[in-house]
Amino acid sequence: MSSVVAPESPRELVHVAVVRKVRKGHEEEFESLIAPFFGAAVEQPGACGAYLIRPILGTDSHEYGILRSFRSREDMQRFYQSDLYRQWTETVRPHVEGEPQKRELHGLEAFFRDQGPPPPRWKMAVVTCMGVTPAVYVFSRLIPAIFGELPGIATLVLVNLFVVASLTWVLMPLLTRLFRSWLGWGTK
What we know:
Blueprint: E1 2-4, E2 14-22, H1 27-41, E3 47-53, E4 63-70, H2 73-80, H3 83-92, E5 96-105, H4 121-147, H5 152-178
Antiparallel strand pairs: 1-3, 2-4, 2-5, 3-4
C-alpha cells in the first residue's frame, strides 16, 4: 500500500526509514490503522509518499518498515511535529512495542549503512546497478508468468515490490559483503 505525490521542485527529497515492532497478534489491527493514516499523511504539506514493508512471511519477525519521503527537511520536521502524527502515535500505541526507530536515509547510502563511512557515490551506484539489473530482469519476467496478464500498473507495482524486497534483504547485503574491500571497508 502506498501513496505517492510527485515533488514540485527538483531538489533532493528527504527519505526516512521507520521501524515499528508490532505486538504479536496485533498485526491485523496495525495494518488496518496504517492505511487511513497513509491517506491522511500524504495530504500533509511536503509529504511525497509512504510505503509499508511487512515482515517476511514465515518468519517470527513482527517488525514493520515504513519508508517516507518529504520535499525538504523542514517538511519532515513539520510532519513529525504535527497533530496528525501525534494522534497516529497514540492510536497505534496499544498495538506496538516501544517507540518508532527513525533513520534518515541519503539516497544509495541506505544500502551501505552500518559498515563505516559511505563509499564514493559512483561505487555505490555501480554495486546497486549490479543488484538492480538482475532483479528487474528476473521479476519483470516472473511476475507475468506467475500472475498472468495484469493491468500495467499492477505488474509494475508487483515487480517493484519484489525488486525492492530482494535488494533490501538479499542482493544488497550479499553484494556489499562481496565488494566490501573495493567499497573501502577492508576485510572482515
